């Protein structure tokens, strides 16, 4: 499959089914364990002759997801996990040990910030947060204990496009590894490993699954590091359930179609909102890929827009603390995804009362734009 084009790989990443009546759709291996005919047969798993023993170790449906994303990200191997958070954790533990130091960008998803600021130190791993768009700050933060630079290819929620080439080159100069959260871009738009990144992580809960019905994560990279991460996944119990793996794989098949349509809709919405007097600033990535710029749009509403009224006026557009489904949704980063990051950092980054994050869906562009414009029009107040 490696030699096929991206869209073909996206639909045909699963191995051809040789057993189980040649089912066209992949069967769901909803089992906690696999059975053996005798002790020697069971031992054959440990000799590497059999693939499956116990679903916490590995399962055909979760393997499909890990290997599918590995194929699309051009990685040697991948592992699926129970969530984006556990993919990040196991990726970090595959490269960092107690006493090591990591540098992360400061405009990260709030959950990742929490993991790095509060949990990793309990493993003896120290994290510094610096603004990755100021490379001199980044260089200054490197110590002889630093092992990894961590960032998001398109950041949450302000949609800054990371200068991956520069960050990866800097890391290589200092013999550091790089781990990139590619959730917002997806491999449809960007493949950080092809630029030299060490590990790529996804919240598959988002565009990979695409239908807001699954929580999952994926980590991809070279065989050696993914082997290490797999050991962490099984020991820490961060494994994905077979059904969730199956659902995410089903979603993955339409990644290209969804991203193409959603990115187009997002561009049109961003352009329309830029022209509106109720909008102070529109955040929408530029120059991500010749296939598009992703489907996220964040907006800083003007001071004279009542935020409560705005959220109440969105009609069929749902308010949801997530993103990337086929339906357009809005979230409020200050009170959800970035609620727990320090208040000074919220202010410094520009995550304030008037910031709204929009995940643009596959609906008709005209309806999406009209509904947002009407919600803004309905929310003006006298100052
Ligand atoms: C960029 C990014 N990375 C990681 C995560 C964590 O993913 P999950 O919720 O699947 O654990 C999120 C969740 O919103 C996210 O936005």
Tell me about this structure.
Helix 11 (255-274) runs parallel beside helix 14 (365-377). The chain has two domains: 6-252, Type I PLP-dependent aspartate aminotransferase-like (Major domain) (Aspartate Aminotransferase, domain 2), CATH 3.40.640; 255-377, Aspartate Aminotransferase, domain 1, CATH 3.90.1150.10. It is 37% helix and 15% strand. Helix 5 links the parallel strand 2 and strand 3. The mean pLDDT is 96. The strands form two sheets. A seven-stranded mixed beta sheet has the order 1-7-6-5-4-2-3, with helices on both faces. The protein has a five-stranded mixed beta sheet with strand order 8-9-12-11-10, covered by helices on one side. 49% of the residues are buried. The chain is globular and about 80 Å long. The chain has helices at 6-11, 39-46, 60-73, 84-95, 110-119, 135-141, 164-173, 186-189, 223-236, 242-252, 255-274, 307-312, 343-349, 365-377, and strands at 77-81, 101-105, 126-130, 146-152, 177-181, 199-203, 217-221, 279-283, 296-301, 318-319, 329-331, 355-359. The protein is an alpha/beta fold and 383 residues long. The protein is built from 14 helices and twelve strands.
Question: TL;DR?
Answer:
This protein has helices spanning 6-11, 39-46, 60-73, 84-95, 110-119, 135-141, 164-173, 186-189, 223-236, 242-252, 255-274, 307-312, 343-349, 365-377, and strands spanning 77-81, 101-105, 126-130, 146-152, 177-181, 199-203, 217-221, 279-283, 296-301, 318-319, 329-331, 355-359. The chain has 383 residues and is an alpha/beta fold. Strands 1-7-6-5-4-2-3 form a seven-stranded mixed beta sheet, sandwiched between helices.
